Every structure is written in C-alpha cells, then in structure tokens.
Amino acid sequence: MRYAEAALRDGEYDFSCFASEQASQLFMKSVILEVIGEIPRVHSLREMLGVLAASVPEAEELISGFIRNNRDKLRALEDAYISSRYLPSTYQREDAEELVETARKIFQLGKEMLRKCRR
C-alpha cells in the first residue's frame, strides 16, 4: 500500500493503480487465511470477498453491502491488474486517487473482518 501511495505522490499513476490492486489482493488473501484457514486460488477481489462472505455467515451482510456500494471501484481495481499486465493502459491522477482510496476501504473492511471473525 505504501508503494501505491508513494507512486500517486510521485505522479506514477499507472504503477499506483497496479500497486493498489496488488496490495488489496494480498491483504484480502491474508484476511481469508486468518479467518478461514486457507487461501482460495482466485485473483478477483470480488471473488475473494464472495468466498469470505460464504464462509463467514456473520459477515455476509457486511461484505455484501461493501460489494454493492463499491462494485464499480472493485471492478476498476481488477481492471488495473489485468491492464497493467496485458494491455497498454494509461491512468490519470483521478484514477489513481480513486483506486488508492478503494484499496484503503478494502483494508478497513479486512481489519473489521479480523476484529469480528477471528477463529
């Protein structure tokens, strides 16, 4: 996450977007590992959140609401991962700011999940 924020400050918007997605993906995998005990073999943040919601019934409403309220932003994060690897994409400052902020929200959600659901 620090790299995403530093890249945003330095005007490296493409890397900031990519790093935001990577930080989000790795953090959610660590949350899933801690809460469920294993890591799913998926890379989609929405899929990871779905796995977490299905595996932890007491968190289903919280996660479903997060997905509902952030669907487009989650999709944009996933697109940043794919685009940076396979397509020539250029991101603007506003894109990077939005994705860094979305990653921060994912971190907040993950921390809340850990507080509520540690087994």
Feature tags:
single chain, 119 residues, mainly alpha, elongated
CATH homologous superfamily identity = Nucleotidyltransferases  domain 2
CATH topology label: Four Helix Bundle (Hemerythrin (Met), subunit A)
What is the H/E order? HHHHH
Supply Rg: 14 Å
Explain this structure.
- The chain is mainly alpha-helical and 119 residues long.
- Helix 1 (2-9) runs antiparallel to helix 2, helix 3 (45-55) runs antiparallel to helix 4 and helix 4 packs antiparallel against helix 5 (93-117).
- The mean pLDDT is 91.
- The chain has helices at residues 2-9, 13-36, 45-55, 60-86, 93-117.
- Helices cover 80% and strands 0% of the residues.
- The radius of gyration is 14 Å and the shape is elongated.
Task: Give the SSE layout.
Layout (H helix, E strand, L loop, with lengths): L1 H8 L3 H24 L8 H11 L4 H27 L6 H25 L2
Helix pairs in contact: 1-2, 2-3, 2-4, 2-5, 3-4, 4-5
Quick structural overview:
The chain has 119 residues and is mainly α. 80% of the residues lie in helices and 0% in strands.
